Amino acid sequence: MTVRGASSADIAAVLALLERSALPTDGVAEHLGDFVVAERDGGIAGVAGLERYGDAALLRSVAVAESARGTGLGALLTARALESAAAAGARSVYLLTTTAESYFPRHGFRPADRESVPAAVRESVEFTTACPSSAAVMVLNLEESR
Ligand SMILES: CC(C)(COP(=O)(O)OP(=O)(O)OC[C@H]1O[C@@H](n2cnc3c(N)ncnc32)[C@H](O)[C@@H]1OP(=O)(O)O)[C@@H](O)C(=O)NCCC(=O)NCCS
After folding, report:
1. Strand, helix or coil at 24?
2. Which domain holds residue 91?
3. Position 146 confidence tier, pLDDT thresholds 50, 70, 90
4. How far is the centre of ligand 1, averaged over its atoms, from the C-alpha of 18 (Å)?
5. Fewer CB atoms inside 10 A, N or C side of the chain?
């Protein structure tokens, strides 16, 4: 298993994995350069995406192929994405989820109000169209977690 930055050659496999995982695909192509993937036997077994908005970032598209779940890969990919958010100067990372509200607290995320989300993040495709307004909003303050 290799975890590496995604490249444009990965787009079809990443979109297929997100579709199989019932996650939104809008905006993925635009931000693929800030995604990480886990490669196994020449295929993509997991993905975690980041969208960068100044000193805030959006974590999205965290998905692991069904056959590889429960082995820590989701945690590894999330950690890599958060490391690259910190390295890029992000101070806080937001996410929207309808399926994994009880998964992300183990990575330091806490529930947040939509109103507290910076405007640039709130204007992302994920916030405006891809995710239902009922999705839970969560935040991780990277400065506190260092
Ligand atoms: C959520 C997901 C990425 C986790 O990946 P993973 O590689 O299986 O996770 P890890 O191996 O790091 O962690 C496994 C642990 O997380 C828990 N977990 C997995 N998915 C969960 C979910 N949706 N909600 C709550 N807990 C979850 C498991 O029960 C397990 O708990 P344990 O450590 O107490 O046994 C994977 O289940 C997935 O792709 N789900 C579909 C897509 C999705 O909902 N993504 C999140 C929205 S952005």
Report:
1. coil
2. 2-145
3. low
4. 14
5. C
Number of domains in the chain: 1
Cα–Cα distances (Å) from 81 to 23, 44, 78, 115, 126, in that order, read 17, 16, 5, 24, 17
Pair of tokens at residue 84: 């690259």
Domain of residue 70, CATH code: 3.40.630.30
**Ligand 1-lining residues (CB < 6 angstroms):** 21, 23, 62-64, 69-75, 97, 99-100, 102-103
Confidence of residue 130 (pLDDT cuts 50, 70, 90): confident
Q: What does the alpha-carbon distance between residue 48 and residue 17 come to, in Å, rounded to a whole number?
A: 11
Calpha distance 79→86 (Å, rounded): 11
- pTM of the entire predicted model: 0.97
Nearest to 62 by CA among 96, 26, 111: 96
Name the residue with tokens 């495709």: 125
**How many C-alpha atoms does 144 have within 13 Å on its Cβ side?**
9
pLDDT tens-digit series, residues 37-65: 999 999 999 999 999 999 999 999 999 99
**CB-side neighbour CA atoms (13 Å) of 42:** 0
